[in-house]
Amino acid sequence: MSFRIVDKDIKLVEYYPNYAVSLPWYQDPVLCKQVDNRDTVYDLKLLKAMYKYLNKNGDLYYIKYKNRLCGDVCLQKNGEINIVIAKSFQNKHIGRRVISEIIKLAKEENMHELHATIYSFNIQSQKMFESVGFKQADTEKYILTL
Which of 57, 94, 97, 144 could form a disulfide with 114 if both were Cys (CB 3.0 to 4.6 A apart)? Predict the structure, then answer.
């Protein structure tokens, strides 16, 4: 299993099925609303389908913070970034450190632009993406030109 070192506390671990750890992240209704604008939580079938899609269409990693898996991040082939940090790990600047590493990965892959869809009510994610250089392109789209 390969991984990328972000810093002394964070590693990105190449995706492997680990639903027992990841499903609880997606059982948080607030997180599901922030990430997918859903009013319902994920079940195992939906989680498996999401991971299958992301793994097929990009570089998918678990986020490991101080030796605990706490989220996932994907750099899709089309330049879209998807990131989820479990609620209990939020507000530790994990996201911005991970996105900075994903920007490095995108440059290694010779991508020229990255984007993220962030719902207008998700101020926390907007600030995080802006802190690493993304600019708001429209109501819910943030772009970074590399």
Answer: 144
**In this structure, are residues 63 and 69 in contact, taking their beta carbons and an 8 Å threshold?**
yes
State how far the Cα of 127 lies from the Cα of 30, in Å rounded to an integer: 18
Domains and CATH numbers, the chain: 3-145 (3.40.630.30)
The Cα 3–Cα 16 span in angstroms is 11
Strand order in the sheet with 58-65: 3-5, 10-14, 58-65, 68-76, 81-85
Quick: pLDDT tens for 39-67: 999 999 999 999 999 999 999 999 999 99
Task: Return all residues near 11 (Cβ < 8 A) that are at least 6 apart.
Answer: 3, 4, 5, 64
CA distance 53 to 70: 20
Rounded Cα distance between 7 and 85, Å, is 17
Strand partners, 63: 12, 71
**pTM for the complete prediction?**
0.95
At residue 72, φ and ψ (nearest 5 deg) are: -145, 160
Using the structure block, give the residue that is written with the tokens 């802006």: 130
Structure tokens at 144: 């970074």
